[in-house]
Amino acid sequence: MNIPAELKYTKDHEWIQIDGDIATVGITDFAQGELGDIVYVDVDTLDETIDRDEVFGSVEAVKTVSDLFMPLTGEIVEFNESLEDEPELVNSDAYGKGWLIKIKFSDVSEIKELLDVEGYKEIIGA
User: Fold this and answer.
1) What is the mean pLDDT of each run of 10 residues along the chain (126 residues)?
2) Which of 21, 24, 72, 113 is the most buried (most CB within 10 A)?
3) Within 13 Å and on the Cβ side, how many CA atoms surround 35?
4) What CA–CA distance (Å, rounded) separates 89 from 82?
5) Is residue 64 part of a domain?
6) Which domain holds residue 67?
């Protein structure tokens, strides 16, 4: 299982890459493996400001639909439009081409509440 050390994580199995005041968000390799084949990604909150831990969209797999939660308070400034035609990118390249959204976050102090790789491994028992 791939868990890149340079990323931050949430208890909801999302990864976050911080670059200045922009955070790129996706779901972890563990999460996509648990969900199975992803057939649809729904994010209708583009250009909205959403509080941390609020739902910003959902991922639909063959067997289930799972809510996506904001890891940081901020405005969703970009959605990975490649997922409209190829939602399976979340399965095949979870930390690369399968990213979900980019957030312009507003509260830097929230970053310290995210998990590091060791904290995330504890949650999933890796």
Assistant:
1) 94 97 97 96 96 97 95 98 97 97 96 97 95
2) 72
3) 30
4) 8
5) yes
6) 8-110
- Please give the backbone phi and psi of residue 41, each rounded to the nearest 5 degrees, phi first: -120, 125
- Strands 101-105, 74-79: pairing is antiparallel
Domain tally, the chain: 1
| Buried/exposed code over 76-98 (b: 16+ C-beta within 10 A; e: otherwise) | bebbbeebeebbebbbeebbeeb
**Quick check: is 3 in a domain?**
no
Q: Which CATH number does the domain housing residue 79 bear?
A: 2.40.50.100
Give the chain's largest Cα–Cα span: 37
pTM value is 0.96
SS (H, E, C) 38-65: EEEEECCCCCCEECCCCEEEEEEECCCE
Quote the pLDDT of residue 113: 96
